[in-house]
Amino acid sequence: MVIGGGIAGATAGYHLARYGRVLLVEMEQVPGHHSTGRSAALFSEYYGGPAVRALTRASRDFLADPPAGFAAHPLLTPRGTLSLCPPGDEDLFDAYLRDGAEVDPPAREIDLAEVPGICPIVRVDRFRRAMLKPATRDVDVDALHQGYLRGIRAAGGTIARLTRVRSLRRERDRWRVDTDGGEVTARTVVNAAGAWADEIAEAASVRPVGLTPLRRTAFLVDAPPGLDVTGWPMVADVGGTFYLKPESGHLLVSPVDAAPCPPGDARPDDLDVALGAARVEEATTLAIRRIRHAWAGLRTAAPDDVPVIGPDPDAPGFLWLAGLSGYGVQTAPAAGALLAALATAQPPPVDPTPHSPARLTGG
User: Fold this and answer.
1) Could you confirm whether domain 2-70+140-210+303-361 is CATH 3.50.50.60?
2) Where are the domains of the chain?
3) If DSSP codes are grouped into helix, strand and coil, which group holds residue 307?
4) Which residues form the signal peptide (predicted)?
5) Per-residue pLDDT averaged across 278-297, rounded?
6) pLDDT tens-digit map of 118-149
């Protein structure tokens, strides 16, 4: 049984389906409503700490060449990222440049004089250095998510929507799970409930791992008149105060906020939208006249910002796939494969040690 139908639960169910029948329960009508459906939709092997980058590397082949019939068109399209260094962030810039050397093709520093040819609205005089990350790609998140859900059904699994888990208890070698649709028994429960994952653990009398839901705001603005933004890279500062990227002929902007908030339907804060607009106007010549649409999503992080994947040390048959933070989409193939390998005693695709729930529970 998999609890949660976002990208974490979907990839878990997809990879587990080859070993047994999967029931995925989702409390919303639309799986992925709170996080997956509000993703920035980027695949970047430059992004995150060492454990995250290892998961991302291990996900590349699946995303670049998914199984036959998984998706009707490619999941990845080229994008690239232009990373800018404001005064005072040179050490951070150097650290990202070193980490980016591991990627193929590697991140490389470029002369500031090259920046206008890449993104003509950048105010070059506001920055000290610039870096290009050519391997960054856009992800078709919906195609990836729906491919996983179709795969679960094709393997004989069931997806139960509008089904909330009320309680869980362990009896002998099985879990008995009380849901809105009645009681379900399962040998294995996968906790992929996103912002609600610690609540699911508590309902099962399992020690929480200390997850924090964080609100991330994004909004769409008009592209500069007369400019085709389609081929522009994502543009961001290395300090993580803003990013912008092309989106359906417009520009998607975020202030890269990460405000702790309770699990729920996240809403954009007007102050965060205004802050994001001001930061972009400071860094570029873009004049933001109106906000076409604003939204917010949840990215739920563990205390060390490393995804929690694997069996709980104190609860037999209870596995975690949670705390994916902002890395859920780009790490989904390897995260699901790792979870399935640990559930079935198969060789893992990456070192599972950094992801073990035991590091957070003391087990």
Assistant:
1) yes
2) 2-70+140-210+303-361, 81-135+212-301
3) coil
4) none
5) 97
6) 999 999 999 999 999 999 999 999 999 999 99
Q: Are the C-beta atoms of residues 211 and 301 closer than 8 Å to each other?
A: yes
pLDDT per position as a tens digit, 62-120: 999 999 999 999 999 999 999 999 999 999 999 999 999 999 999 999 999 999 999 99
CA gap 36, 45 in Å, rounded: 19
Residues near 301 by Cβ (< 8 Å), separated by ≥ 6? Answer: 211, 212, 214, 323, 325
Distance CA(2)–CA(343), nearest Å, equals 12
> Is the Cβ–Cβ distance between 158 and 274 less than 8 Å?
no
Write out the DSSP string of 187-215: S-EEE--GGGHHHHHHHTT------EEEE
Torsion angle of C-alpha atoms 19, 23, 26, 30, degrees rounded to 10: 80
Name the nearest CA neighbour of 37 among 251, 162, 194.
194
Helix, strand, or coil (residue 48): coil
The predicted structure's pLDDT at residue 35 = 78
The CA distance from 141 to 253, in Å, is: 18
For the chain, the average pLDDT equals 96
Q: How many CA atoms lie within 13 A of 69 on its CB side?
A: 4
| CATH architecture assignment, domain 81-135+212-301 | 2-Layer Sandwich (3.30)
Residue 336 scores a pLDDT above 90: yes
Non-local CB neighbours of 239 within 8 Å, separated by 6+ positions: 86, 89, 92
pLDDT of residue 39: 80
Contact between 332 and 8 under an 8 Å Cβ cutoff? The reply is yes
The pLDDT confidence band at residue 34, using thresholds 50, 70 and 90, is confident
Question: Which class for 302: exposed (0-12), middle (13-18), buried (19 or more C-beta within 10 A)?
Answer: buried
Q: How far apart are the first and last CA of the chain?
A: 23
Name the nearest CA neighbour of 50 among 100, 85, 11, 7.
100
